[in-house]
Amino acid sequence: MNLDRLRRAVIRAHNRWTGRRGGSFSGNEILILTPRCLQYSGCDRNVVADSGNCLRCGRCDFGGLAELAKKHGARLEMATGGGIALELLKKPEIKAVVAVACEKEIVSGLLRKGRKPALAVINLRPHGPCRDTRVDPAEVEAVLRRLLKEG
Ligand code: SF4
């Protein structure tokens, strides 16, 4: 079994376990956290400073996540590194997280995140690692719904 396969198995087990505790958060208590490489490499919008700067032009999936965050009232942040992601997680207004990243970053983050519930979605890498990565917003929404309280 290669390392990423092993990590995927760990992530699946973690998501199953954490998902059982879910269903108790408001949208604005949940952070959708994305890696820098999700933004289209030719885009000059500063979505790291403010996800609201995304024009939702469709050239990358950050726009779809911005729509999703708006629909559910969730927060959306793009982290430029693992340390920054952990700082965002520490904010008291954040109670739970949906993290999009590669297998390695997710497992590293899960080991260091502390007690807040975090569900993970593994990104797709059609251009190789760390560049123009993709994620299906519908998959992120399905995971987000596991953390949201009913009604
Ligand atoms: S969807 Fe947003 S982040 Fe992606 S390329 Fe368009 S403006 Fe840039």
Offer a few descriptive terms.
151 residues; binds iron/sulfur cluster; 4 strands
**Whole-angstrom Rg:** 14 Å
Structural class: alpha/beta
Which CATH C-level class is it?
Alpha Beta
Average pLDDT, rounded to a whole number, is: 94
Describe this structure in words.
The protein is α/β, with parallel strands linked by helices. It has one domain: Rossmann fold (3-Layer(aba) Sandwich). The chain is 39% helix and 15% strand. It contains five helices and four strands. The protein has a four-stranded parallel beta sheet with strand order 2-1-3-4, with helices on both faces. Helix 2 links the parallel strand 1 and strand 2. Helix 1 packs across helix 4 (103-112). The protein is globular and about 40 Å long. The model has no long low-confidence stretch (mean pLDDT 94). The structure holds iron/sulfur cluster. Iron/sulfur cluster is lined by residues 39-40, 43, 45, 47, 54-57, 59-60, 62-63.
